[in-house]
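Researcher: Following up on the earlier apo prediction. This time include the ligand. It's 80O, with the SMILES given after the sequence.
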Amino acid sequence: KRHRFWETQPVGQFKDLGDASLPEGSIEPPSPLSEVKSDPYPLPALYEWTTCDIDDDATAAEIYSLLSNNYVEDDDNMFRFNYSKEFLLWALRPPGYFKSWHIGVRVKSSKKLVGFITGIPARIRASTVVVRMAEVNFLCVHKKLRSKRLAPVLIKEVTRRVHREDTWQAAYTAGVVLPTPISTCQYWHRSLNPKKLIEVGFSRLGARMTMSRTIRLYKLPPSPVIPGFRKMEIRDVPAVTSLLRVYLSKFAVAPDLDEKDVAHWLLPRENVVDSFLVKNPETHEITDFCSFYTLPSLILNNANYTNLKAAYSFYNVATKTPLLQLMNDALIVAKQKDYDVFNALDVMENESFLKELKFGPGDGMLHYYLYNYRLRHALKPSELGLVLL
Ligand SMILES: COc1cccc(CC(=N)NC(=O)c2cccnc2OC2CCNCC2)c1
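Model: Understood. Below is the ligand-bound prediction.
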């Protein structure tokens, strides 16, 4: 397949697959900052760049609406991600973030926001090397402006602004195959509200299954069962950071999280991110941790429902409690909070619980990519310790 744009970029190229002589690491060296263009990449005449100040509520609302109407849909165009404004404020303002990496495209005449792309800083370890990267996300072009080759322009502009901050690598995901995935993950869904999921067409009634039998199949206890299972609190940040750092060191690619990162990404925020831990009631040791983020989807044409409330597995560590039991308590809490479905990728050790906890495979794959960084070989999902929003 022709990738006119990606074949011009410093990313693993399909033609290089199997060439073991290519070293792991940066594909192109950094340029001197003086050589990084200080003016924005040219846009087609009708449009202009804008740096989106998400602290401004009106701008945050514009970004919310652009994504809510034009962002990623499932393969059958029945659902569209519907990130909340609060979620976007969380996702785009981690420690050390750059406002200049929140990039919009407006129509010059109307000032309407019609394009968006973001970067956030992240320290990501690839094998043994911790690399300062940008996590690039929320690439969105208004439905009415597709096939005008605006996406490559947005990607070039976020690349330029990231280079301006002396950052030369990036990480991103996509539902499509581009040159060249570092890993290809399968997504899985665990029904929590099967009646609604079947009604809206997310799931289908199993063969030889009745609705009441299906509801019974997915029934969960009314509350968590692990002794010492509770919500994470600010005082837990140091212990959770230690637990996570040790656990994530097992994976070939994973974020290098310090206490500030853990406080931002994992302290509970209502309807944005939930996190729980197991504190041994005798030893007071924190031995396990689980978390999920909240990403609803718009239901695009159903008479009775407009919103699908979905939880997405985030970071989980089990050192004393079996992971299966820890994740079952996560399902129980998600059900308590009225989520319709709990989603997970087969990354880290997730494969060990998916089938047993009655997850079903999704109908698509999520591909992970690194920009300007070559890995000697692609990773199995179980070697990947990175979850993007
Ligand atoms: C149910 O509503 C949907 C609305 C839009 C797309 C999809 C399918 C899909 N593409 N799902 C995922 O990418 C996915 C499935 C499981 C876990 N994480 C995921 O994506 C995350 C991470 C990447 N950025 C989007 C959210 C489903």
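Model: Residues 72-74, 79-81, 173, 175, 187, 295, 297, 308, 312, 343, 345, 362, 364, 366, 388 surround 80O (CB under 6 Å).
Researcher: Noted. I'll compare it with the apo version next.
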